[in-house]
Design goal:
The chain is mainly α. The protein has helices at 2-45, 55-81, 88-110. Helix 2 packs antiparallel against helix 3 (88-110).
Length: 114
């Protein structure tokens, strides 16, 4: 009898993540569907305005965040593991952040003054 209740508990424990993933997917699907319909109606009514997006500001923010995360993870992995291939886990975001910051610096210099 005790074996049956433990196997039932294992089945319930195995089903919970599956149900969570399915429900999350359903929520995301309906959000995307309703947002698409809303945008379509706004475009048809003629009230659509294109959202402002500054690639320069995005590259600065993303570059700073990735660089800080990369430095933190690189130092942490260097202290814990020393020189190993695991260090790439910190060097990859660090180099990506440095590239975005370099892009920001280069493009900022291209802007005319005034």
């Amino acid at each position: 009898m005790e074996n049956m209740s433990s196997s039932a508990a294992q089945v319930i424990i195995a089903i919970i993540p599956i149900v969570g993933i399915v429900m999350g997917s359903v929520v995301i699907f309906f959000y995307l569907l309703w947002d698409h319909r809303r945008r379509t109606l706004i475009i048809k009514s003629g009230h659509y305005s294109r959202p402002d997006f500054s690639l320069l500001s995005f590259s600065l923010l993303a570059g700073l965040l990735l660089s800080v995360v990369g430095v933190t993870v690189t130092v942490l992995l260097a202290v814990i593991e020393g020189k190993s291939y695991g260090l790439f886990g910190g060097l990859i975001p660090l180099s990506t952040g440095a590239g975005l910051l370099a892009y920001y610096i280069i493009k900022r210099g291209d802007k005319p003054n005034g």
